[in-house]
UniProtKB/TrEMBL annotation, chain A:
It comes from Levilinea saccharolytica. GO terms for cellular component: plasma membrane. It is found in: Membrane. It is a multi-pass membrane protein. InterPro entries: ComplexI_Subunit1, NADH_UbQ_OxRdtase_su1/FPO. This is 2-hydroxyacid dehydrogenase.
From TrEMBL, chain C:
Fe cation binds at C66, C356. Mg(2+) binds at E44, I320. Keywords: Iron, Magnesium, Metal-binding, Nickel, Oxidoreductase. One of its GO terms (molecular function) is NAD binding. This is 2-hydroxyacid dehydrogenase. Its cofactor is Ni(2+); Fe cation. The keyword Ribosomal protein does not apply. Ni(2+) binds at C63, C66, C353.
Length: 303, 146, 359
């Protein structure tokens, strides 16, 4: 077997891909739950809880709703996990693959949207009215948060004049980074469907939204994809906005710190807010999100 | 309650009010036109508080309309004819569930009710399952010591 | 595309089983049908098979939240027929219990309302505060839910430590003033979810005959404590709370200000608590013949009892009308034209009590 293939497999399955991503994702999910619990005068779960949840769900017998093709039912969460892991694997993280090619940034953006698309399809495929309403809300929300998210990434790409992540990484740190980072962070709570943008899975209205008919291993995979999404968003943030240091060890610390920062921001926000209705969430992103998007793209074009 | 409403209801009912306490007026009127009374009371800004049904030994049902007009409770007692009464739901929406409940529990038919579905009654039971004597009569019927 | 979406009988937004079938076009609600009867227990029928002492235990179980109100109304009806005078100390203790119950019920509602708009932190805060009220209720009556405080002619237990209760009520009032009211009136995400949502106009409120905080939030000054004063409300000087904006915010504000008024009434009642007996020396088992109608203001609105006695130890008829009976159908008027996402908070703003409605 060639060296490249082994390296590729290691990047996909070990670091920074599936294994490291899953462990880190469970850590982030736990930290978010524990932080929110502390802010609500609760104790919160022990650190291994997300892992136990995953194992427990894997061991459950699953029921495919009548009228849904089993291939679709199991395929969608699997596709979500596979694509978000691939996104993690191709990111230029310390100790990672470092295989760079033109347009890898676009590939990462596309792969990172996959879990959301799988969610939407799963909601419609489950034939539950709650799932369908949740899916249509999630689709609307994607239109909202994608604006600042894509604009933040594009602004840096414009400045670097390239859609290669290595080139973006090499950019000298400047004002565009600050503004683009703000736009990026604006999009994060909705990406992770945490409060106040948790309307697609608002349990008090539509039970569990797109996941309402999911159970057992299929739900475990969706939960895993959610954890990996958390890690991927943190990884992209550190790749784009955190200046690289010469030491690989320090870079690793910064990579973890970026993830923890996002966990902290989303948890505090989630604990301090009520859930916004879909039209308000949409309006928020099409005013403040649009302003931030416009700001960073214009600034990038001018500088 | 103003004097005109008082007299108006007495004319509709063909009976006189009985003052039972400071705030409560009762009216015994077996043949009252409940719809006309409801219209007169609503025009005077009264609201329907509830309706009470009591099974009578002769198989008919006594129905009391409890109205509130400001700080005055008005209770109009009427009696069904063959367990039928005209509905007042089209006049006041508040009567909708109250009448449906009495249909379930006492098998009184409110003629012209727009939505006569069971409200509380489980499908296994037939309407009128509350029609049993209470108090001493009930105890005697059940063979308990009075 | 029009579709029907069910909320209930089992749904995360509901504490009790009832069913809302929402007819909606996209995210806009066109019509709602409401079904109840899932926890129908036949309490009225059972009540006319049992004696007055047993009935007190029975009617306490009509509702798990406002249990005290039901025994209070039942006792007051029996006392009215028997022409009994209740000792002053018992009247004051009844008022204190009723207002403590209102505090815990309104706090429970505020917690569930926060949960329904996805604000879990607020839910935890409010429930921590509610726990203090439950502690006071337990200290007085020995029970957390069914207090068994009322008997025909008086109350079963005395308040032996008025200073302790006073201290607790003052700390609860501080909690309401410093956390609950500011967050509900200032947090932008909460206001975004409640202002202008679930309008029930004054005319609709009259048509549906709604009672309690719903009526007062639609500008109707209806309150049994003011219109037909009972227990010690006349001595304490009750002040009614109304709002005119007719939306969910108005219902929140009415309940919040009512909690402050409850704290004031409890404090005043404790300070002016008269001495003397708390119940007649002889247990009342038989009520003379007669009929009466008794109204009491429960946390959710007017509770009505009709009691008919034939002179035996068993009532001839007990009719119970709870506030949710009249308030629940009004959800239909509130829901039309609203966003689907607001249905959870709209139905919760009514504070529906289904075991009350079903009895």
């Amino acid at each position: 077997m060639s060296n490249g293939l082994i390296q590729g497999l290691a990047a996909y399955f070990l670091w920074p891909g599936l294994l490291a991503g899953a462990l880190l994702g469970w850590l982030y999910l736990w930290l978010s739950r524990a932080l929110i619990a502390r802010m609500q005068r609760r104790f919160g779960p022990p650190f291994y809880q997300p892992f136990f949840d995953f194992v427990k769900l894997l061991g459950k017998r699953s029921m495919v709703p009548a009228g849904t093709a089993p291939l679709l039912y199991y395929g969608l969460p699997l596709a979500a996990v596979i694509s978000i892991t691939l996104a993690l694997a191709v990111m230029p993280l310390p100790g990672g693959l470092n295989a760079s090619f033109t347009g890898d940034l676009i590939l990462v953006l596309y792969l990172m949207e996959m879990p959301a698309f799988c969610d939407i399809l799963a909601g419609f495929a489950s034939r539950s009215i709650y799932g369908q309403v949740g899916s249509s809300r999630e689709a609307a929300l994607i239109l909202g948060y994608s604006l600042p998210f894509i604009a933040a990434v594009s602004a840096l790409a414009i400045q670097a004049d390239s859609f290669r992540m290595v080139d973006v990484l090499a950019l000298p740190f400047g004002p565009v980074h600050v503004l683009a980072a703000a736009a990026f962070i604006l999009a994060v709570p909705a990406r992770l469907k945490s409060n106040p943008f948790s309307i697609p899975n608002a349990e008090q209205e539509i039970v569990a939204g797109p996941h309402v008919e999911y159970n057992g291993p299929a739900l475990a995979l969706f939960e895993l994809a959610h954890g990996l999404e958390f890690v991927a968003v943190g990884a992209l943030f550190s790749v784009l906005f955190i200046p690289r240091l010469p030491s690989a060890g320090l870079n690793l610390v910064l990579y973890l710190a970026a993830g923890l920062l996002l966990v902290l921001i989303t948890s505090v926000l989630a604990a301090a807010t009520a859930r916004l209705q879909i039209h308000r969430a949409f309006r928020f992103y099409w005013t403040w999100g649009a302003l931030a998007a416009l700001g960073c793209v214009v600034l990038a074009a001018l500088l | 309650m103003n004097e005109t409403l008082r007299i108006q209801i007495e004319q509709i009912a063909g009976a006189a009010w009985e003052q039972r306490s400071e705030h409560e007026l009762w009216l015994q009127a077996p043949a009252v036109d409940v719809r006309a009374a409801a219209q007169a009371l609503l025009a005077a800004e009264a609201r329907l508080s509830t309706m009470t049904a009591l099974a009578l030994p002769n198989g008919e049902t006594e129905v009391i309309y409890h109205w509130i007009c400001g700080k005055q409770g008005l209770h109009i007692k009427t009696c069904t004819q063959g367990n039928h009464l005209p509905t007042i739901t089209p006049i006041t929406a508040a009567a909708n569930w109250i009448e449906r409940e009495i249909m379930d529990l006492y098998a009184v038919v409110f003629d012209g009710h727009p939505d006569p579905k069971p409200l509380l009654r489980p499908s296994k039971l037939t309407a009128g399952y509350y029609r049993e004597p209470g108090g001493a009569a009930g105890k005697a019927a059940r063979g308990e010591m009075v | 595309m029009p579709f029907r979406i069910p909320i209930g009988p089992y749904h995360p937004a509901l504490e009790e089983p009832y069913k809302l079938s929402i007819q909606s076009r996209g995210e806009i609600v066109e019509d709602v049908t409401i079904e109840v009867g899932f926890v129908h227990r036949g309490i009225e029928l059972l009540a006319q098979r049992r004696n007055y002492i047993q009935d007190l235990v029975l009617v306490e179980r009509v509702c798990g939240i406002c249990s005290n109100i039901h025994t209070l109304t039942f006792c007051m009806a029996a006392e009215e027929i028997a022409g009994m005078q209740v000792p002053d100390r018992a009247r004051f203790i009844r008022t204190i219990m009723a207002e403590l119950e209102r505090l815990h019920s309104h706090l429970l509602w505020a917690g569930i309302g926060s949960e329904d708009i996805g604000f879990q932190t607020m839910f935890m805060e409010i429930y921590a505060l509610r726990e203090q009220v439950m502690d006071v209720l337990e200290a007085i009556s020995g029970n957390r839910v069914n207090y068994a405080m009322n008997c025909i002619g008086g109350v079963n237990r005395d308040i032996t430590d008025p200073e302790g209760v006073l201290r607790a009520v003052r700390s609860i009032r501080e909690g309401i003033q410093k956390t609950v009211i500011p967050i509900f009136t200032q947090n932008r995400t909460i206001l975004g979810r409640t202002r202008g949502v679930g309008i029930l106009t004054r005319d609709e409120a009259v048509t549906y005959g709604v009672v309690g905080p719903i009526a007062r939030a639609s500008g109707l000054a209806i309150d049994v404590r003011q219109d037909f004063p009972y227990a010690a409300y006349e001595d304490l000087g009750f002040q009614i709370v109304t709002q005119d904006s007719c939306d969910v915010t108005a219902r929140v504000v009415v309940r919040a200000l009512e909690m402050l008024e409850s704290c004031r009434l409890i404090e005043k009642a404790l300070l002016e608590l008269p001495g003397g007996p708390i119940r007649p020396s002889e247990l009342v088992t038989v009520v003379p013949p007669g009929e009466t109608m008794m109204r009491v203001e429960a946390p959710r609105g007017e509770v009505v009892y009709y009691l008919k006695s034939d002179g035996s130890d068993t009532p001839a008829r007990v009719k119970i009308r709870t506030p949710s009976d009249l308030n629940l159908p009004a959800i239909r008027a509130m829901a039309r034209g609203q966003a689907l996402g607001d249905m959870a908070i709209i139905q919760a703003s009514v504070d529906p009590c289904c075991s009350c409605t079903d009895r």
